[in-house]
Design a protein that fits this description.
The protein has about 400 residues and is an alpha/beta fold. The protein is about 50% helix and about 10% strand. It has 3 domains: about 1-25 and about 215-290, Helicase, Ruva Protein, domain 3 (Orthogonal Bundle), CATH 1.10.8.60; about 40-210, P-loop containing nucleotide triphosphate hydrolases (Rossmann fold, 3-Layer(aba) Sandwich), CATH 3.40.50; about 300-405, Orthogonal Bundle (Arc Repressor Mutant, subunit A). It has helices spanning about 1-10, 40-50, 70-85, 105-115, 130-140, 155-160, 165-170, 195-205, 215-230, 240-250, 255-270, 280-285, 290, 295-305, 310-320, 330-340, 350-360, 390-405, and strands at about 60-65, 95-100, 145-150, 180-185, 210, 325-330, 365-375, 380-385.
Length: about 400
């Protein structure tokens, strides 16, 4: 029986063996490296917005925008970590990072901020006003400066509006002393376009930092850094890392590059035995293409072949479907006119617009549904985008349109 049992658990021997991966942490999306690569320009820009942060009466603001996987969050996290170290003997800096995708209401946002600086703070039975009062008291009692990072802030703005931003920005009003809180907003979208004038005035339009997608050479450097930190020496080659960069380059997403590296390393780890070379192969790099890349690659293929005005139409659709689950063809035509005006182009005919919509449906970019109105005598066509994330498609389109025009 003992022999049989031993045979049953042999397959577990590879757990923790470290044939290929000696430290899995750098292959995690949330990992913050000691030094980020290919974002030095934006580190400098962010530091410039916080140039006065060493002064006790000073508060600073920044808005970071860019497509998925462009390094927005890791840029801000490394900046705040480095800032805490830099000012260790001059000013105590606390950091509260809130992902608004998971905390999309004003109340939840303030609760998360309070928990970051006081883990034991009660979060039930308190109004938003009482929570803000607690936040004000805590920051003053600790004689520290709090940097609040609202990541994916567009989720909160769509659900709760921007009043909480206004409240955070004026938290020092009518109080003795200033400079208790700085605010950094992170979003894929141009959030300044949806903020009230009073909030924009306090945030400052010049505090916007736009980050582009990564180029292939930058993705290569990122994948190389993570491979060096996570993988066993000799388990990968420069050519393997370059292949990973090439596979993720069409969308410029560092998260995809890191995920491809992790998947390749795990594939190599899984097939190890006494006779296997402990090195990541080309097959390992492609092993999980069907799982990892199908949506992203199909997204690229689906939009790359569209004509410029078809891209305008699709961009109009994506902008509406970021907040609504469906729209009518009448909505499409009106919003298409807005996009044409934005890019200073004349609209195509109604017939051409319908051809573009049909092409998009054939490419599975959109799905249409026809409903009857007026006792069955009229019909309305509704559009939705079930297979793709509208914000991701919109980001890709905006990049492609700039190249095509």
């Amino acid at each position: 029986m003992a022999t049989a049992f031993t045979g049953m658990v042999d397959y577990l021997d590879r757990i923790g063996a470290g044939y290929v991966i000696h430290d899995p942490e750098p292959l995690d999306f949330d990992y913050v490296p000691q030094q980020i690569v290919c974002r030095e320009q934006y580190q400098n820009q962010l530091a410039a917005r916080f140039a006065s942060i060493d002064r006790l009466e000073s508060s600073c603001r920044a808005v970071i925008t860019g497509p998925v996987g462009s390094g927005k969050t890791v840029l801000v996290k490394t900046f705040c970590r480095d800032l805490q170290r830099h000012l260790v003997n001059r000013r105590t800096i606390n950091v509260a990072h809130v992902n608004c995708r998971n905390a999309s209401t004003s109340t939840r946002v303030v609760q998360r901020i309070l928990h970051a600086i006081d883990p034991g703070h009660p979060d039930r039975g308190l109004s938003i006003g009482e929570l803000l009062l607690s936040l004000r008291k805590l920051t003053r009692r600790n004689s520290s400066h709090l940097i609040v990072i609202l990541d994916e802030v567009d989720h909160m703005l769509r659900k709760s509006g921007d009043d909480i931003l206004y409240q955070l920005l004026r938290i020092d009003e009518d109080q003795e002393g200033k400079g208790t809180l700085s605010l950094i907003l992170i979003s894929q979208e141009q959030v300044l376009d949806v903020l009230e004038t009073a909030v924009i005035s306090r945030m400052g339009k010049t505090n916007l930092i736009k980050i582009p997608s990564y180029r292939e050479d930058e993705l290569f450097k990122i994948a190389s850094q993570r491979a060096e930190l996570a993988l066993v020496n000799g388990s990968y080659t420069e050519e393997i890392v370059r292949l990973i960069a090439q596979k993720s380059a069409p969308i410029g997403d560092a998260r995809l590059a890191i995920e491809l590296l992790k998947a390749a390393a795990e594939s190599c780890e899984i097939r190890q035995d006494d006779h296997t070379e402990r090195a990541i192969s080309i097959d390992d790099v492609h092993a999980k293409d069907e799982i990892l890349s199908v949506d992203m690659v199909s997204e690229i293929n689906a939009v790359e072949g569209l004509k410029p005005h078809a891209m305008f139409v699709l961009l109009a659709i994506c902008r509406r479907l970021k907040k609504d689950t469906s729209m009518t063809t009448g909505d499409v035509e009106n919003l298409y006119a807005v996009v044409c005006e934005e890019y200073e182009e004349s609209m195509k005919s109604h017939t051409t617009l319908w051809k573009y919509l049909k092409e998009m449906e054939n490419r599975q970019l959109i799905k249409t549904r026809i409903s009857t109105v007026n006792d069955g005598r009229g019909r309305t066509t509704h559009l939705s985008m079930p297979h793709f994330l509208p914000s991701d498609i919109a980001s890709r389109l905006e990049m492609l349109i700039k190249k095509r025009l």
